[in-house]
Amino acid sequence: MTTTNAKPRRRWGRFTLHYIEMIIAMFVGMFALGALLDVLGLGISHSEYPELGYLVMAFNMSVGMAVWMRIRGHGWASTLEMCAAMFVPVVPLFPLLWLGMIDGGTLMMVAHVAMFPLMLAAMFRRLDEYAGCAH
What we know:
With about 140 residues, the chain is an all-alpha fold. The chain has six helices and no strands. The longest helix is centred in the first third of the chain and has 37 residues, at about 5-40. The radius of gyration is 17 Å and the shape is globular. The protein starts with a helix and ends with a helix.
């Protein structure tokens, strides 16, 4: 292995590791805060209130990611961009839900699938920060 090959591989390895960390932090936030809300009797029925259910879930996922990003030394701009990836997918879906073109389950599925490439887009926007460990 030469030095020229090691640096790009290491850089993309860091990028990939950070993406995996974000996914783990997102799920930890979603499950931990969701469980806490349920224990407190504040859980939201996704089938009864899909809009509110999704927004609360997106908030919970964002908290998990934001906490981890701040621990890792990221600034607020990149942290908020990553959190926005949890909310952006639902913007075009709510009107489709209200018009009866999709149901709550479809809303959840499509938004969850869309957030992963949106997280990657936020990371590519600040490639040096995520791949170069500039934090």
